[in-house]
Amino acid sequence: MTTDDAFAASLRLVSGEVAAVADAVANGPSADGILVDIENANRVFLLGAGRSGLALRMTAMRLMHLGLTAYVVGETTTPAISEGDLLIAASGSGTTAGIVRSAETAAKVGARIVALSTTDSSPLADVADHLLVIPAAAKLDRSGEASAQYAGSLFEQAVVLVGDALFHALWQRSGASADELWPRHSNLE
Prior knowledge:
By secondary structure, the protein is of the alpha/beta class. Helices cover 49% and strands 12% of the residues. The protein has one domain (13-172): Glucose-6-phosphate isomerase like protein, domain 1 (Rossmann fold), CATH 3.40.50.
C-alpha cells in the first residue's frame, strides 16, 4: 500500500467511525434539556483533560460567540463556579479523578452538570444532571473492537462534534445572524 493509499484508507476509517458515533448520539436521548440548561446558565464552565479538554476549548469559544459567558476550567482567569452556573465535563471513562472532583465541587455549590462520557456507569455519570453517552472507544479499550483508532481518539473527535452541534442548535434557537455573532470573534489574532 502506498503512503497516499494508507492516508486515504485512514481518512475513510476515521470519518466512518465518527459518522457512526454521531448517528448513534443523534438517535439517542434528546439533548433538549442540555440546551435549556446552557441557555439558562449564568455562566458555562467547560472541563476536560488532554485532548477532551482541547475539544471543549473549541466549544467554549463558540458559546462565547453566542454571547454566553464561558470559561475553560484551569485557565488563570477562570472564577469560582457557583449556583446558577453550568459545568460541561468530558471524560471517556467517567473516572478521571480531577474531573470527577471538580464535578462534585460544582454540584456542592449548586451548579448544574452536563457529563460527556462513553459510559452511563461512572462517578461522573452519578453526579451529572445530564449525561450524554458517546458510544466511542474508551481509552483503556485497546482491543480495537470499539474503534480501530488509537486510544480515545474517537471519543475526542465526537466531543468536538457534540460541542459544535450544541452550538449550532443554540444558534438556531437564538435567531441571531452570523453577522450578529461576528463582532465577538477575536480581533487580536
